[in-house]
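On clarity, I found the account of how folds are encoded harder to follow than it need be. An entry of this sort, consisting of the sequence and the corresponding backbone structure tokens, reads as follows:
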Amino acid sequence: MNPQELLSLYQIQKPKIQKRLNEFKSLDEKYYFPEFLFCLLTPQSQAKKCWQAVEELSMLKKFTKKNVSEILKSKTRFYKTKTDYILNAPYLWHKELKGKMRKDDPQWSRKWIVESVKGIGMKEASHFLRNIGFSNNQIAILDRHILKNLKEAGLIEETKIKSEKNYLEIEKIYLDYANSLSIPPDELDLLWWSKENGEIFK
């Protein structure tokens, strides 16, 4: 899809995309923890199934290895490892993350999350911050749909991220490209997602 076609699609999808991002920005703080759980589950797994898992986890009075793994095993890959992450999540949330993230500094917040939480890398931390309205068009969720479209646009040679340094390099390419199109980076992400998946999700 060339830039002109992308801009035409953007004009069609723009109201829905902005509505979704505004929902993220206005999210009540009590919903931050479920979004944190979601981003612990998403690596190499389907977003919709991960969210279904979060909805089921949210109904539990207490997390146990048995009830968490029972939910995760049919909805996410590496469910045994992710069960351990979920069991540790309430402690990490209250000790390391809650109230410590800076809405005006997504780069700092992302670094803090990556350093504090086992199981969350640059992509997942970026995803979490976007989903609670903290990304401010300053960071990118370098998921498969973004990497694929960057490669198709001739901006990167391969779709594999090799290191944190490489992540930041590709992120800058993405942010610069979005700005060159006059499409806010957060909106371009959802535009490409909708192009690939036929809907705007999270």
Q: What stands out?
A: The domain at 3-25+139-197 is CATH 1.10.1670.10 (Endonuclease Iii, domain 2). The chain has a mean pLDDT of 94.
